[in-house]
Design brief:
This protein is an alpha/beta fold. The protein is built from 17 helices and 24 strands. It folds into 2 domains: 358 residues, TIM Barrel (Alpha-Beta Barrel); 109 residues, no CATH class.
Length: 559
């Protein structure tokens, strides 16, 4: 007798084949059988004709710190995710020396929009090296499956200390970093991750350490993947990083390269597709490159106390690292504002904010006399007051001691363009950023959004292809064996949902992080069950309580 049988389901195998009615049996955490009659189970569930698919693999998360206090990751499993890959962009907390812990935390506070108080109160530092970090995760148990990148900024800080974000590395330092990456890969890292994006700034507004690496350093560290013979190179690309250089890395090491973050800008509409064309050309030459794309509009709440959308602008640099009255003096300065206006007037290959003031709204004001401005765009406010929208934004923030909450639709606003991205043969649906920007942003439900908005509502792609993009295609690129598909012998990571209603609900704010810090959540819609390794972690009522922690730390990956 099987442990579990789910009958009367619409089976979607994750491989892109047409859905078919049937049943699925689970024994010992693995799929034992599929078909019309799979026998009896100790637990029998009637799916009622709903879709049964592999669980979502979320390849772009930032749960590295959160996992030390939140082993269950219900914020993702409640949205159909059964496997999360952490350490993206190279923003990791291991390896980390005790003397560098506070710097690491302050960097995460800025670059990932995290609460400093929550990180200081929540992180459990029972590790120093990357292998020790993996062992710590394994000891504490996991609610879902987790794979971890070894991160460039973490490695650089471990070797170079406070110099990591200030200068190029010496040959001796590069050799030490490479040895750490090799050690991490042999301990079970899924790959090596880095960032060259100018939007990625750490404590005090200085660049994240990986941004100081030259091409020689990147070639040496990615060479560790070739030396070990497995692993993925993941890079969040700045405009100066050429796809041709990333193709060279793929050619040297024979390893896949995942290029993020390929998002559509309405002010430079073809740039993202030019990158995908370059990736296609590299693929035609036998290189394994893929572009990480998002199926969601990039919308972010923010205040001027944490002005993440603007921090990638060169003209914003004088404000980076400034606090209190010093910061207010900078943003009040006419020359500072004129420099921002001049930069926004020039085209750019990629930047978060492009001067589209009609897509920036006042969400919440701090003073009653400004209440009428709520739900109005900065373009509208500027026009009504005869002011430039930038001045309207900065003056309102100054008048409210930087407490005004704004919302910006930054990228992926053009639905026709996003449809091209999510159906592109060289685009990997990704970029949830789950675990980062918790106060102002949450796309952990990206998979449900793909199934609801893009499949059902927009009919951009068939259901079976959308499921493939969220499951077996992810497993292929990251070398995750026996997951991402419904087949006998595969791990029983499962998601039961109603295609007619599936999606993500309205954003909600909760205050349940360490030190009472806030986070945004998006509840699931039309999701009826999630199983991790054959154990149910979510049902119609919500996460199973107490959490079963059926997840595993993934250490073995295909070569």
């Amino acid at each position: 007798m099987h442990d579990l049988v789910i009958r009367n389901a619409l089976l979607i195998d994750g491989l892109g084949r047409a859905p078919r009615p049937g049943s699925l049996a689970v024994t010992g955490g693995r799929i034992a059988a599929l078909g019309d009659d799979v026998g009896a189970g100790r637990e029998m569930i009637d799916a009622g004709g709903r879709a049964l698919a592999p669980g979502i693999i979320d390849n772009h998360t930032h749960y590295d710190a959160q996992l030390t206090w939140d082993r269950d990751l219900a914020a993702s499993s409640s949205l159909g995710v059964t496997t999360a890959i952490i350490g993206n962009c190279g923003f990791t907390i291991a390896p980390c020396r005790p003397e560098d812990r506070d710097l690491t935390i302050r960097n995460l506070t800025n670059v990932e929009g995290m609460s400093l108080e929550a990180l200081r109160a929540g992180i459990r530092w029972d590790f120093e090296s990357f292998p020790e970090y993996l062992s710590s995760l394994e000891r504490g148990g996991l609610g879902i499956n987790v794979a971890a990148f070894v991160g460039h900024s973490g490695v650089r800080t471990f070797v170079m200390g406070e110099d990591a974000p200030k200068r190029a590395a010496t040959p001796v330092e590069i050799d030490r970093m490479r040895a750490i990456v090799v050690e991490a890969m042999r301990a079970g890292a899924v790959g090596f991750a880095t960032s060259t994006s100018p939007a990625h700034n750490g404590a005090g507004g200085i660049p994240m350490p990986s941004r100081l690496a030259d091409e020689a350093e990147l070639l040496a560290l990615t060479g560790a993947l070739g030396e070990v013979g497995r692993g993925v190179f993941m890079l969040t690309k700045g405009g100066q990083t050429r796809v041709e250089f990333l193709e060279e890395i793929a050619a040297r090491n024979g390893r896949p390269v995942v290029i993020a973050a390929l998002l559509h800008s309405s002010t430079n509409p073809e740039a993202v597709f030019h990158d995908l064309d370059r990736i296609a050309a590299a693929r035609a030459r036998g290189r394994r490159l893929v572009g990480a794309v998002s199926c969601c509009p990039l919308t972010m709440d923010f205040t001027l106390a944490a002005p993440y959308p603007f921090e990638g602008l060169a003209a914003w640099q004088p404000a980076l690292g400034q606090k209190g009255e010093a910061f207010k003096r900078v943003i009040a300065d006419r020359g500072f504002r004129d420099a921002i206006r001049a930069e926004l007037a020039q085209p750019a290959t990629f930047r978060l904010f492009n001067g589209e003031w009609d897509r920036v709204q006042v969400v919440q004001t701090a003073r009653p006399e400004h209440r009428a401005l709520e739900n109005n765009s900065l373009a509208q406010i500027g026009a009504e007051r005869g002011r430039d929208p930038l001045d309207a934004l900065l003056d309102l923030a100054l008048a409210e001691d930087l407490e005004t909450v704004f919302a910006a639709l930054l990228l992926n606003a053009d639905e026709e363009a996003v449809a091209r991205l999510v159906t592109h043969p060289h685009g990997l649906v990704s970029l949830s950023d789950a675990g980062a920007h918790l106060t102002f942003f949450n796309d952990a439900g990206f998979g449900l959004h793909l199934l609801g908005h893009w499949v059902r509502d927009r009919r951009a792609l068939p259901l079976e292809q959308a499921v493939r993009k969220l499951t077996s295609e992810q497993a292929y690129w990251f070398g995750i064996p026996d997951r991402g598909r419904l087949a006998p012998g595969c791990a029983a990571d499962l998601m039961l949902f109603d295609p007619a209603t599936v999606g993500r609900g309205p954003r909600q704010r909760r205050f349940d992080l360490p030190a009472g810090a806030a986070r945004l959540t998006t509840p699931p819609v039309g999701l009826h069950g999630v199983w991790v390794n054959g154990v149910r972690v979510f049902d119609e009522r919500g996460p199973i309580d107490p959490p079963p922690r059926a997840g595993r730390l993934l250490r073995e990956f295909a070569a």
